[in-house]
Amino acid sequence: MPMTAHRSAELRIAQATTKLVATHPFFASILFRLRRVTDPAAATMWTDGTHLGYNPAFVMEVGRDELAGVLAHEAMHVAGLHPWRQQGREHRAWNVACDQVVNAILAETGLLLPAGAVPGVAGKAPEELYVPPPPPREDAGAAPPAAGAAAAGNSGEAGSEPSAPGDGEGTAAETDPGGCGEVRAPTRPNGGALTEAERTRQMEEARIAVQQAMNAAKRAGSLPAGLERLVEEALEPRVPWREVLARFIDEQSRTDYSWTRPNRRYIAAGVVLPSLWAPGYGRIVMGCDTSGSVGADELREVCAEILGALTAYQERGQTPSLTVAWFDHAVYEQTVEEPEELRPRGGGGTSFRVVFEWLAVQEESPRAIVMVTDGYCSDYGAAPEIPVLWVLTRPNRGFRPPFGELISTQ
């Protein structure tokens, strides 16, 4: 596309943003933080929380009012922390879920979106609406991943042409199934994945920026009450914690390619290829806070989640044991095969550090750990080399773990 077309698209975005300054300064404030990146390979627009990518052809074709709506749509992805909440979920399905949430919010503002945009669903979190694609069937000819395949990402340089996010290759419609702007998982400038510390830092910076944008819009008297409520919910997202916990455990399943179970589709042609094989679930540890600040109700909640994890295993025909790490200032290990075997121990001061130090010296590293706590502790220690899911048992806005994923039961 000629340089003049790029400049025309940039001017059109600037004009639409200026319009939002006058009518919806909350969105404009967030947009001013994002670095614009021309991306002719994109279907429409995208954001990874720090960049605003756009296809100049789309910008020139879409109506002026709809362009303002798409820009607000991308701003709401940032406000909802959607890039950082993706957490490895499939790109297309996560985009649809986020678009359903965002478009419900935009419907209350009166902003327009392009025809065919995903209908909004009010009162839901993206994690609740997310429907992962079915796993590849063994007889569907799934081939093993290519050696050395790199994760797709964005270069972060102005004028670059980033590859499609998440899924890697795909058509424009596949990368933006909602038709009005994507959300992409954030990456490093070289396209590599963020560390947990980098992800947490970016999320905190985004929270601060969104809070500042909301405060400024309120002072200007231009933040509708409905939008204020929805933004506050985005800053402290309520997610269906039981579903998230089940998803977290599912993601740790041992799925690999096996040469001892060849793919039947290719045998007739004389070609032997491995097939997908899931021999069972890896060892999961439940770290359960039994400090003096956790009452009887919270302990019952901990036990209920342990029972839920066991049920998830049994429903899949598995009969594994579950390692429970009750902790206060020390770790009290217990192996549970039946729910009635649960025996909470502890009651002193809390230290998360002791759990992760205990994990580091285990002969067999678990696949993941679920940390259930009331959050009244700041002694985290070093981040483990396995996924961590924090389950907060009571409201605690000051609890911001430096690594892992956080959900709340309240």
Give a structural overview:
The chain is of the alpha/beta class. It folds into two domains: 3-132 and 150-239, no CATH class; 245-254 and 281-408, Rossmann fold. The protein is built from 14 helices and twelve strands. Strands 9-8-7-10-11-12 form a six-stranded mixed β-sheet. Strands 1-3-2-4 form a four-stranded mixed β-sheet. Helix 2 (25-31) packs across helix 4 (64-79) and helix 11 (241-251) crosses helix 13. The N and C termini lie far apart (51 Å). The model is unreliable at 141-171 and 276-281 (pLDDT under 50).
Record keyword descriptors for this entry.
single chain, 410 residues, alpha/beta, Rossmann fold, 2 domains, four-stranded mixed sheet
Give me a quick take on this structure.
This protein has 410 residues and is α/β, with parallel strands linked by helices. The protein has 14 helices and 12 strands.
Question: How are the elements arranged and paired?
Answer:
Layout: H1 3-23, H2 25-31, E1 35-38, E2 45-47, E3 51-54, H3 56-61, H4 64-79, H5 82-85, H6 91-109, H7 126-129, H8 172-175, E4 182-183, H9 196-219, H10 225-235, H11 241-251, E5 253-262, H12 264-267, E6 274-281, E7 284-289, H13 296-314, E8 322-327, E9 331-336, H14 352-360, E10 368-373, E11 388-392, E12 405-408
Parallel strand pairs: 1-3, 2-4, 7-8, 7-10, 10-11, 11-12
Antiparallel strand pairs: 2-3, 5-6, 8-9
Helix pairs in contact: 1-2, 1-4, 2-4, 2-9, 4-6, 9-10, 11-13
Spatial gap, N to C terminus:
51 Å
Write down the secondary-structure element order.
Answer: HHEEEHHHHHHEHHHEHEEHEEHEEE
- Please summarize the sheet with the most strands: 6 strands, mixed
Structural class: alpha/beta
The strand line-up of the biggest sheet is 9-8-7-10-11-12
Whole-number total of structural domains: 2
Q: Helix share of residues?
A: 25-40%
**Low-confidence runs (pLDDT<50, min 5 residues)?**
141-171, 276-281
Total beta-strand segments: 12
Give average pLDDT, whole number.
77
List the total number of helices: 14
